[in-house]
User: What shape does this take?
Amino acid sequence: MKLLSAEFVASAAEPAQFPAGDLPEIAFAGRSNVGKSSLLNALLGRKNLARVSQTPGRTRLLTFFRVTLASRGAKGSPEKFLFVNLPMIEGYLSSRSPLRGVVLLTDIRRGEDDEVNVVRWLGEQGLGLVAVAMKIDKLPRGQRLQALRDLETFLGVPVIGCSAVTDAGQDLVWKAIRGLLARPRRVAVSHNRISM
Ligand code: GDP
Assistant: This one.
């Protein structure tokens, strides 16, 4: 896989500000400070594209980034899609039709009940999910596998261990994202609420 470009497209506080167009979208969701901006920067090989906020709770806007891969699609053109940094979940997830799937970030050291709710809700909607446990570098190697298993049991889905500091797990996350992009476009949007 060769990354040709990654660029900021827009930030949005509400649906009216979401970018037009119908490129497929992959959302990166998770609570504040879990590492969303860091993982986006790491996957895209850029230090500061998605600003890494030092203060929990500061990132309030959704931010959209256009990504272009050199690999050829069915029409022989580069593969283009959007990554969305998603601190505020509900309005976007329930109404955004180009959305192909969600990368849900959790902390390897503890899962949260609201993450279980998001997993369940995504399943009900038939939306693709990749669960990623961030900050795996913070655990001693000998504890990582058990922590991943515990998180998988807690969330009820497979989890990829990952670090934005070392490159652990990033190749697996990319592979899973490409699996999400291969999924069909969703047909109907939902009006059910996620309980957070
Ligand atoms: P966001 O609010 O979800 O976008 O989280 P940030 O990307 O701003 O990260 C919050 C803090 O966690 C920052 O200080 C990052 O440097 C740190 N961080 C993010 N990912 C990792 C990781 O994989 N390992 C470690 N050790 N720190 C991380």
Q: What stands out?
A: The mean pLDDT is 88. The longest helix spans residues 141-155. Residues 3-14+22-181 form a domain with the Rossmann fold fold (CATH 3.40.50.300). The pocket of guanosine-5'-diphosphate is lined by residues 30, 32-38, 52-54, 59, 134-135, 137-138, 163-165 (CB under 6 Å).
